[in-house]
Design brief:
- With about 170 residues, the protein is an alpha+beta fold.
- The chain has one domain (about 5-65, about 70-169): Cupredoxins -  blue copper proteins (Immunoglobulin-like, Sandwich).
- It contains two helices and eleven strands; from the N terminus they run H-H-E-E-E-E-E-E-E-E-E-E-E.
- It has helices spanning about 5-20, 30-45, and strands at about 50, 55-60, 80-85, 90, 95-100, 105-110, 115-120, 125, 135-140, 145-155, 160-169.
- It has a five-stranded mixed sheet with strand order 5-11-10-7-8, with no helix packed on it. Strands 4-3-6-9 form a four-stranded mixed sheet, covered by helices on one side.
- Strand 10 (about 145-155) and strand 11 form a beta hairpin.
Amino acid sequence: MRFGSRPLLVLLVGASITVAACGDDGPDSAANAERSAELAAEFHAGQTTTTLADGSGEAVAPPSTEPPASTAAPFEPTGVVIPVTVLDNSFRPQSVEISIGDEVLWENRGLNEHNVLSVVGDDWGVEVEDFQPGSVYAHVFTEPGEYSYFCSIHGNETAGMVGTIIVSA
C-alpha cells in the first residue's frame, strides 16, 4: 500500500511514539477503526507497497482472489471486513465473532515484527517476513468453526499473544 498523505505519516509516527515496545497496549479508539477501514480499502484495491513511519517501503502481496481448495459448499463473500489490531503484546480484539464469508484484516501496529499462525492447519496465516510493523494480512473465512491463532514470537498456542475467530453459519 502506498500512503502519500502527510497527516497519515504524522499519525503513524505519533502512534509509534505512544506505544512502548512490549508495554501496555492501551485502549483502542475510533481513529483505529477508521484507519483499519482505510487499510482494507487500499488492500483490496491491489496496492502493493506499504510506506512505514520511517519512510521506508515494503512490498506486500495483494490478497489472493482464488478461493482455497475445499470440498465445502460454496459461500457468498459478505464484503464485511473485521479489523484486528496487532500490538506488541496482544491482538485487539482478542476474540471476534463473524459470519461465513466475512474477512478478518490484521494490521501490525506494533513496533515489533509479528506473525499470525493458525493453531490447527496451515491454510491461513502470515509469517514474520511478511508481517513487519505497518503490514496488513487478510483472510476470508469460508467454513463455520472456532479458529485459534497466535504470534509465535510473543506467545505460544495457548498463552501470551493469542486470539480466536468464531465463524457462524
